[in-house]
Amino acid sequence: MDLEIESLLDRAGTGDQKAREQLFQVLYAELHRLAKRELARNDGGGSLGATTLLHEAYLVISGREGLSFTGRGHFMGYAARAMRGLIIDYARRGLAQKRGGQFQITSLGTTVGGQCADPAELERIADALEELAVAEPTLAEVVDLKFYCGLTFAEIAALRSVSERTVKRDWEKARIYLHRALQDDSALF
Question: Is the same domain home to 88 and 132?
Protein backbone atom coordinates (compact mmCIF):
# COMPACT_ATOMS: atom_id res chain seq x y z
CA MET A 1 0.00 0.00 0.00
CA ASP A 2 2.79 2.44 0.89
CA LEU A 3 4.57 1.70 -2.38
CA GLU A 4 1.35 2.40 -4.26
CA ILE A 5 0.92 5.71 -2.44
CA GLU A 6 4.54 6.70 -3.10
CA SER A 7 4.10 5.88 -6.78
CA LEU A 8 0.89 7.92 -6.94
CA LEU A 9 2.60 10.84 -5.16
CA ASP A 10 5.45 10.77 -7.68
CA ARG A 11 3.09 10.64 -10.65
CA ALA A 12 0.82 13.33 -9.19
CA GLY A 13 3.89 15.56 -8.75
CA THR A 14 4.55 15.36 -12.47
CA GLY A 15 1.08 16.70 -13.22
CA ASP A 16 -0.71 13.38 -13.75
CA GLN A 17 -4.34 14.26 -12.95
CA LYS A 18 -5.41 10.63 -12.91
CA ALA A 19 -2.77 9.89 -10.26
CA ARG A 20 -4.13 12.76 -8.12
CA GLU A 21 -7.61 11.30 -8.37
CA GLN A 22 -6.37 7.83 -7.45
CA LEU A 23 -4.40 9.26 -4.54
CA PHE A 24 -7.58 10.76 -3.12
CA GLN A 25 -9.40 7.46 -3.62
CA VAL A 26 -6.70 5.49 -1.83
CA LEU A 27 -6.47 7.97 1.07
CA TYR A 28 -10.18 8.88 1.16
CA ALA A 29 -10.95 7.33 4.56
CA GLU A 30 -7.91 8.95 6.15
CA LEU A 31 -8.71 12.31 4.53
CA HIS A 32 -12.34 12.08 5.67
CA ARG A 33 -11.16 11.47 9.24
CA LEU A 34 -8.89 14.50 8.88
CA ALA A 35 -11.82 16.62 7.65
CA LYS A 36 -13.90 15.57 10.68
CA ARG A 37 -11.06 16.53 13.02
CA GLU A 38 -10.64 19.91 11.33
CA LEU A 39 -14.35 20.65 11.63
CA ALA A 40 -14.50 19.54 15.24
CA ARG A 41 -11.53 21.71 16.07
CA ASN A 42 -12.47 24.83 14.10
CA ASP A 43 -16.12 24.85 13.12
CA GLY A 44 -17.79 23.68 16.30
CA GLY A 45 -21.00 22.34 14.80
CA GLY A 46 -21.51 24.71 11.90
CA SER A 47 -23.33 23.68 8.77
CA LEU A 48 -20.20 22.67 6.82
CA GLY A 49 -19.92 18.87 6.60
CA ALA A 50 -16.80 16.70 6.54
CA THR A 51 -17.57 15.27 3.09
CA THR A 52 -18.14 18.74 1.63
CA LEU A 53 -14.91 19.98 3.21
CA LEU A 54 -12.98 17.01 1.84
CA HIS A 55 -14.37 17.49 -1.67
CA GLU A 56 -13.64 21.23 -1.59
CA ALA A 57 -10.07 20.46 -0.50
CA TYR A 58 -9.78 17.99 -3.37
CA LEU A 59 -10.83 20.72 -5.82
CA VAL A 60 -8.27 23.11 -4.36
CA ILE A 61 -5.44 20.57 -4.49
CA SER A 62 -6.30 19.11 -7.89
CA GLY A 63 -6.59 22.60 -9.38
CA ARG A 64 -3.08 23.67 -8.36
CA GLU A 65 -0.43 23.25 -11.00
CA GLY A 66 3.10 22.18 -10.16
CA LEU A 67 2.32 20.64 -6.78
CA SER A 68 4.63 17.85 -5.75
CA PHE A 69 4.79 16.01 -2.48
CA THR A 70 7.84 14.42 -0.90
CA GLY A 71 5.79 11.77 0.84
CA ARG A 72 2.53 10.80 2.43
CA GLY A 73 3.10 13.06 5.43
CA HIS A 74 3.77 16.06 3.21
CA PHE A 75 0.58 15.36 1.26
CA MET A 76 -1.53 14.95 4.41
CA GLY A 77 -0.07 18.13 5.88
CA TYR A 78 -0.89 20.02 2.70
CA ALA A 79 -4.43 18.63 2.72
CA ALA A 80 -4.83 19.74 6.36
CA ARG A 81 -3.68 23.27 5.48
CA ALA A 82 -6.09 23.37 2.54
CA MET A 83 -8.98 22.29 4.79
CA ARG A 84 -8.01 24.81 7.45
CA GLY A 85 -8.01 27.58 4.83
CA LEU A 86 -11.43 26.52 3.57
CA ILE A 87 -12.84 26.54 7.11
CA ILE A 88 -11.46 30.03 7.70
CA ASP A 89 -13.00 31.25 4.43
CA TYR A 90 -16.30 29.60 5.35
CA ALA A 91 -16.30 31.24 8.78
CA ARG A 92 -15.55 34.64 7.24
CA ARG A 93 -18.41 34.31 4.76
CA GLY A 94 -20.80 33.13 7.44
CA LEU A 95 -20.10 36.06 9.68
CA ALA A 96 -19.88 38.74 7.02
CA GLN A 97 -22.31 41.52 7.83
CA LYS A 98 -23.20 42.15 4.21
CA ARG A 99 -24.51 38.58 3.95
CA GLY A 100 -26.56 38.82 7.11
CA GLY A 101 -23.97 37.14 9.27
CA GLN A 102 -25.02 39.27 12.23
CA PHE A 103 -28.48 37.69 12.20
CA GLN A 104 -28.92 34.32 13.82
CA ILE A 105 -31.92 32.11 13.35
CA THR A 106 -32.67 30.22 16.51
CA SER A 107 -35.10 27.54 17.43
CA LEU A 108 -36.10 25.81 20.60
CA GLY A 109 -34.38 22.51 20.06
CA THR A 110 -33.48 19.85 22.56
CA THR A 111 -29.77 20.02 21.81
CA VAL A 112 -27.36 22.87 22.20
CA GLY A 113 -25.23 23.56 19.14
CA GLY A 114 -21.61 24.60 19.43
CA GLN A 115 -20.42 28.08 18.62
CA CYS A 116 -18.68 28.66 15.33
CA ALA A 117 -14.99 29.39 15.83
CA ASP A 118 -13.98 33.03 15.80
CA PRO A 119 -12.71 33.80 12.28
CA ALA A 120 -10.23 36.36 13.61
CA GLU A 121 -8.70 33.78 15.94
CA LEU A 122 -8.57 31.16 13.18
CA GLU A 123 -6.90 33.70 10.92
CA ARG A 124 -4.30 34.55 13.59
CA ILE A 125 -3.47 30.87 14.00
CA ALA A 126 -3.28 30.35 10.24
CA ASP A 127 -1.00 33.38 9.86
CA ALA A 128 1.27 32.13 12.65
CA LEU A 129 1.47 28.71 11.00
CA GLU A 130 2.29 30.30 7.64
CA GLU A 131 5.08 32.32 9.28
CA LEU A 132 6.38 29.13 10.85
CA ALA A 133 6.25 27.37 7.46
CA VAL A 134 8.44 30.12 5.97
CA ALA A 135 10.87 30.25 8.90
CA GLU A 136 11.06 26.51 9.69
CA PRO A 137 9.23 24.28 7.17
CA THR A 138 10.05 21.06 9.03
CA LEU A 139 8.52 22.41 12.24
CA ALA A 140 5.37 23.47 10.40
CA GLU A 141 5.11 20.00 8.89
CA VAL A 142 5.28 18.43 12.36
CA VAL A 143 2.44 20.72 13.52
CA ASP A 144 0.33 19.79 10.51
CA LEU A 145 0.93 16.09 11.00
CA LYS A 146 0.44 16.08 14.79
CA PHE A 147 -2.22 18.68 15.40
CA TYR A 148 -4.23 18.62 12.19
CA CYS A 149 -3.71 15.07 10.93
CA GLY A 150 -3.78 13.54 14.41
CA LEU A 151 -0.71 11.36 13.93
CA THR A 152 1.32 10.14 16.89
CA PHE A 153 4.96 11.06 17.37
CA ALA A 154 5.92 7.51 16.36
CA GLU A 155 3.91 7.74 13.13
CA ILE A 156 5.44 11.12 12.28
CA ALA A 157 8.92 9.76 12.98
CA ALA A 158 8.29 6.82 10.65
CA LEU A 159 6.97 9.11 7.91
CA ARG A 160 9.94 11.45 8.17
CA SER A 161 12.53 8.69 8.75
CA VAL A 162 13.81 10.28 11.95
CA SER A 163 13.74 9.30 15.61
CA GLU A 164 10.70 9.89 17.76
CA ARG A 165 12.84 12.07 20.05
CA THR A 166 13.67 14.36 17.08
CA VAL A 167 9.97 14.72 16.32
CA LYS A 168 9.23 15.59 19.95
CA ARG A 169 11.98 18.23 19.94
CA ASP A 170 10.60 19.72 16.73
CA TRP A 171 7.10 19.71 18.24
CA GLU A 172 8.31 21.63 21.30
CA LYS A 173 10.18 24.16 19.13
CA ALA A 174 7.05 24.69 17.03
CA ARG A 175 4.88 25.14 20.14
CA ILE A 176 7.26 27.77 21.51
CA TYR A 177 7.39 29.59 18.17
CA LEU A 178 3.60 29.62 17.81
CA HIS A 179 3.06 30.64 21.42
CA ARG A 180 5.32 33.64 20.94
CA ALA A 181 3.78 34.48 17.58
CA LEU A 182 0.27 34.47 19.00
CA GLN A 183 1.23 36.32 22.19
CA ASP A 184 -1.41 34.42 24.10
CA ASP A 185 -1.10 32.64 27.41
CA SER A 186 -3.63 29.95 26.49
CA ALA A 187 -2.02 26.74 25.28
CA LEU A 188 -3.30 25.80 21.85
CA PHE A 189 -1.06 22.81 21.33
Answer: no
